[in-house]
């Protein structure tokens, strides 16, 4: 994995048409780090991931990936630069089998062997190999989330942007999804995870970025903030009596 796979967001303003949701966001996902993006509902977390992936109205600032500014670029160009995005909610093809879903994802990659790529992903996600002839729509919620991750990983991205993979899942399925995320990270990928489950996110992530009302209000090592202090931050936007200030 390239050492320069750092994502840097500087004073980004973006939204939907005339509506501005992100009001000057600054954040860093250093190469190979696991960063959790957290904050209350409506803070703009999904909007930030969509903005990185070129799916919102870009209004200003810079999004630097591997030293290049990709702010306002098109999703297909961003994808081709090694950035993968797994949106909130499941969106695979329910009436196709697991294998057909993976082949669909592989077909969009030029100059590569579909079968080899599919087998590579089965190696990463053995559960999907077991289920390969099952309709994707009949997978459990957790398995569908794994399939979504697999379809993104099939492109061998250097950074994975993933939006609330635990939403609606049982504790058991959440554990599987997080174990896979951790494994992808251990393999050298940079991960930017949006997550409501702060306890879980803080277990796996090295850094946390807290967004509120379209702005970053805290950014630092997860070890530098308690779960309780995070909760207060979400509610009030302040750390108040928290023992620690803004992290390093
Ligand atoms: N397509 C859209 N068009 C217009 N406004 C939108 C659109 N998508 C989101 N918004 C608005 O942008 C704001 C931020 O939404 P966003 O989905 O980024 O929040 P979030 O932090 O991901 O929240 P949640 O935790 O609920 O997923 C909200 O006020 C929302 O209503
Ligand atoms: Mg969201």
Description:
This protein is α/β, with parallel strands linked by helices and 248 residues long. The chain has a domain at 7-91 and 157-236: Rossmann fold (3-Layer(aba) Sandwich), CATH 3.40.50.300. The protein has nine helices and ten strands. A six-stranded mixed β-sheet has the order 6-7-8-3-9-10, sandwiched between helices. Strands 2-1-4-5 form a four-stranded antiparallel β-sheet, with helices on one face. Strand 7 (159-163), helix 7 and strand 8 (190-194) form a beta-alpha-beta unit. The chain is globular, with a radius of gyration of 18 Å. The model is unreliable at 242-248 (pLDDT under 50). Bound molecules: adenosine-5'-triphosphate and magnesium ion. Residues 16, 19, 21, 39, 41-47, 196 line the site of adenosine-5'-triphosphate.
Which key terms come to mind for this protein?
four-stranded antiparallel beta sheet, 248 residues, 34% helix, binds adenosine-5'-triphosphate, six-stranded mixed beta sheet
* Tally of separate helices: 9
Overall form: globular
Task: Please report the total strand number as a whole number.
Answer: 10
CATH topology of the domain at 7-91 and 157-236: Rossmann fold
- Secondary-structure content class: alpha/beta
Mean pLDDT, all residues? 89
CATH superfamily of the domain at 7-91 and 157-236: P-loop containing nucleotide triphosphate hydrolases
Q: Walk across the major sheet and give the strand order.
A: 6-7-8-3-9-10
The CATH architecture of the domain at 7-91 and 157-236 would be: 3-Layer(aba) Sandwich
Largest sheet: 6 strands, mixed
Distance between the termini: 25 Å
H/E topology pattern: EEEHEEHEHHHHEHEHEEH
Proportion of helical residues: 25-40%
Rg over alpha carbons: 18 Å
Percent in strands: 25-35%
CATH class of the domain at 7-91 and 157-236: Alpha Beta
Low-confidence stretches: 242-248
Bound ions, cofactors and other small molecules, one mention each: adenosine-5'-triphosphate, magnesium ion
């Amino acid at each position: 994995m390239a050492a320069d796979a750092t994502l840097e967001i500087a004073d980004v303003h973006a939204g939907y048409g005339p509506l501005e949701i992100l009001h000057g966001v600054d954040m860093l996902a250093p190469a190979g780090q696991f960063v959790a993006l957290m904050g209350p509902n409506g803070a703009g977390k999904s909007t930030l991931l969509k903005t990185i992936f070129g799916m919102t109205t870009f209004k200003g600032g810079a999004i630097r990936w591997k030293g290049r500014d990709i702010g306002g670029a098109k999703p297909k160009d961003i994808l081709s630069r090694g950035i993968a995005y797994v949106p909130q909610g499941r969106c695979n093809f329910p009436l196709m089998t697991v294998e057909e879903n993976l082949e669909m994802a592989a077909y969009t990659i030029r100059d590569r062997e579909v079968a080899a790529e599919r087998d590579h992903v089965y190696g990463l996600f053995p559960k999907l190999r077991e289920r390969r002839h099952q309709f994707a729509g009949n997978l459990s919620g957790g398995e569908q989330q794994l399939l979504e991750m697999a379809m993104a990983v099939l492109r061998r991205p250097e950074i994975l942007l993933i939006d609330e993979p635990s939403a609606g899942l049982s504790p058991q399925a959440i554990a599987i999804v997080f174990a896979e995320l951790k494994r992808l990270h251990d393999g050298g990928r940079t991960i930017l995870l949006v997550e409501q489950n702060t306890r879980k996110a803080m277990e796996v992530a090295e850094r946390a970025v807290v967004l509120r009302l379209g702005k970053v209000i805290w950014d630092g090592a997860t070890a530098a903030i308690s779960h309780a202090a995070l909760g207060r931050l979400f509610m009030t936007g302040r750390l108040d009596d928290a023992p620690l200030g803004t992290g390093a």
